[in-house]
Amino acid sequence: MRKLLLSLGIVLMSSTINAQDQSQMGAWYMYFYKHQFKNSQFGIQGDLQYRNWDIIGDLEQLLIRSGITFTPKNADILFTLGYGNITTGQFGDSNATVSESRIYQEAMFSKKIGGRFYTTHRFRYEQRFVENQDFRTRYRYNLFLNIPVNQNTLDAKAVYIALYNELFINGQTDIGTDTPVQLFDRNRTYLGMGYVLKPSMKFQLGWMNQKTVNWGKGQLQFSFHHSF
């Protein structure tokens, strides 16, 4: 187990160094929450994210998102109807920002494979109202994989490897500006380490590479996942 953790740490450090060479490495600080109402199929979930073009100080995005969840009986799937408010900053010294309101619908289901591989599939459809742009939509698919390394379950004191890959597809190319967008919006690939303080509290530290048609960028990610 120690060799596995050391190897993963070297990969993360190497990825970070490579991102620094691009002089574009940023950092995202994230809080995710989830709550199931007592004796109910309904709940809430959402996240608060402070994203920086650099490690801290140069705002990339401030994202506030929350939604109502519904879990059908006898089904391992979670549906969400939510709203997000996003403030996007410009790279560098400019303090200019663009605001966005976003409505989204999501379906998420999880399955444990082979006794210790925790997989989650998330499908999300977004309706986006971006300042100075026409109404636009976007489709997203994310595959998450968590693998505990010091025990077989994600119970208290578990150390785990966290990976995901997310694909973004625009619903249209004409957004009312002089420059149309591509149908392919972006792809995100993540590798990190997590620690389960207790089943309702998990911490993660990792590195994510984000690519669009025109650019690629590395991001450090620090996240706290909270169920209450």
TrEMBL record:
Signal peptide: 1-19
Pfam families to which the protein is assigned, alphabetical: DUF2490
Annotated keywords: Signal
Record-given protein name: DUF2490 domain-containing protein
Lineage top rank: taxon: Bacteria
UniProt organism field: Hyunsoonleella rubra
Keyword Signal attached: yes
InterPro entries per the UniProt record, alphabetical: DUF2490
